[in-house]
Design a protein that fits this description.
2 domains; 246 residues; 19% strand; flat; alpha+beta
Length: 246
């Protein structure tokens, strides 16, 4: 870290202290089961200890690792003749996986799917949770990387996935600030969209709301950006609707 970086950090601390009650606790290394590692100008956030504890508590420490957290084109649903599983254990595992997704966007979709069946989990749903754990066995060292870049401009990507079993789209987006991933989201729509364009448009609206909130937050702490924020979507029809004021 150079002297200019130190001055800039001190200036930021003074600006934040003028708006919020703050106390400098020194360099952060571990907080709420999140490990913070610094290497030169890079910052790594990981929950490797949380992963290892989770694998040990569930007896999956010596399991065969999987390369993906969920089966491709799965058809998970609540069926009348399903074989029930231990509801309390399922609920506890999903909660711990939800917390792990704070630093693991790679399991966000799989955990989102598992969370939909907390009210009535079956053996098939438990198998899905176990697959997430076996995936973590093969990828327990992964972490979020934050690098110092020359800008703090937000950028967002949106997309949808059609769920065949219930005709509801899975909406997802992830947002970068200064080239660093800071927010991600994966959730099933509450309503059934009549077309993929409608669902994509809903996701764009959600992405815009998040971008506006982030721009407001950055401006509040002294990082106002005059440049337009880019939002990426892979649907040309959705862009034509969004750009049409009529």
């Amino acid at each position: 870290m150079t002297s200019d970086d130190t001055i800039e950090i001190e200036d930021l601390q003074k600006r934040l202290a003028s708006k919020f009650e703050m106390k400098d606790l020194g360099n952060l290394t571990y907080f709420l089961r999140v490990e913070v590692t610094r290497y030169k100008h890079d910052l790594f956030l990981s929950q490797m200890k949380h992963v290892m504890d989770l694998l040990e508590d569930t007896g999956m420490f010596d399991c065969k690792p999987n390369e993906t957290p969920i089966v491709e084109n799965h058809k998970l649903e609540v069926y009348v003749d399903h074989v029930p599983t231990n509801k309390e254990r399922y609920h506890r595992l999903v909660e711990r996986l939800n917390y792990l997704s704070l630093t693991r966007p790679d399991i966000a979709y799989a955990v989102s799917v598992s969370s939909q069946f907390i009210h009535s989990p079956s053996e098939d749903h438990m198998v899905t949770v176990m697959r997430i754990l076996s995936y973590l066995k093969s990828a327990h060292r992964r972490s979020l990387l934050f690098k110092i870049n020359e800008h703090l401009d937000p950028k967002s990507y949106t997309g949808t996935y059609y769920a065949i079993t219930n005709r509801r789209y899975i909406l997802g987006y992830f947002t970068f600030i200064g080239g660093n991933l800071v927010m991600w989201h994966s959730k099933k729509q509450n309503v059934v969209s009549r077309s993929s364009v409608e669902s994509e448009y809903r996701e764009i609206v959600q992405g815009v709301c998040e971008i506006l909130w982030l721009r407001w937050l950055l401006a509040e702490i002294g990082f106002r950006s005059n440049a337009a924020t880019k939002l990426h979507c892979d649907s040309q029809s959705t862009f034509e609707i969004a750009n049409n004021p009529v």
